[in-house]
Amino acid sequence: MTTDLWEYRPGSHHAADLTLVGYDVEATDGPLGHVDQDAGDHLLVDTRPWVPGAPVLVPVGLVSRIDHLELVVHLDCPRARVRSAPPPAAVDGTGGRAALDAHYARDRAGGRRVG
User: Fold this and answer.
1) Lowest-pLDDT range of 9-13, 20-24, 98-102
2) What is the largest CA-CA distance in the chain?
3) What is the DSSP string of 24-40?
4) Across-strand partners of 35?
5) Distance between CA atoms of 86 and 64, rounded to whole angstroms?
6) How many CB atoms lie within 10 A of CB 56?
7) Are the C-beta atoms of residues 91 and 78 closer than 8 Å to each other?
8) In this predicted model, what pLDDT tens digit does every residue of 49-82 receive, in sequence order?
9) Is 62 helix (H, G, I), strand (E, B) or coil?
10) Does 87 have pLDDT greater than 70?
11) C-beta of residue 56 within 8 angstroms of C-beta of residue 88
């Protein structure tokens, strides 16, 4: 069974009534940035100063868990994988979602993502 890239996973500790804006974001290999925008099905992450470049769009299906006490969103992929995703401007609309689905599909195998 695969996880929908645009929905939080069961057990991720997502709370629909809480925004994640301001939370730090950690990839499997270290800090990625902080949440600038929580759109429900994706997060816009400011990657400065850890990763140079523009903000990145992170589908919530990449969230492995949320620590509401430490204010940290943990992802199940490395920084390079997120950094190499299409830029947010290219992901506007359903066609952009298909681009992100294709980008992260390479990591999904048998219902799990590999980093």
Assistant:
1) 98-102
2) 36
3) EEEETTEEEEEEEEE-S
4) 45
5) 21
6) 24
7) no
8) 766 777 899 999 999 999 999 999 999 999 999 9
9) helix
10) yes
11) yes
CA distances (Å), origin 14, targets 1, 67, 95: 20, 9, 26
For 4, residues 6+ apart whose C-beta sits below 8 A from its C-beta are 61
- Residue 107, amino acid: D
Rounded CA gap, 61 and 41, in Å?
Answer: 8
Distance, first Cα to last Cα, the chain = 18
- Reply yes or no on whether the pLDDT at 42 is more than 80: yes
- Reading the block at residue 100, the tokens are 């992100």
Range 101-108 average pLDDT? 75
Residue 100: what pLDDT? 86
More confident residue, 105 or 68: 68
Q: How many CB atoms lie within 10 A of CB 101?
A: 15
* Structure-token match 């804006």, residue found: 21
Q: Which amino acid is at 46?
A: D
Strands 42-46 and 56-59: antiparallel
β partners of residue 9: none
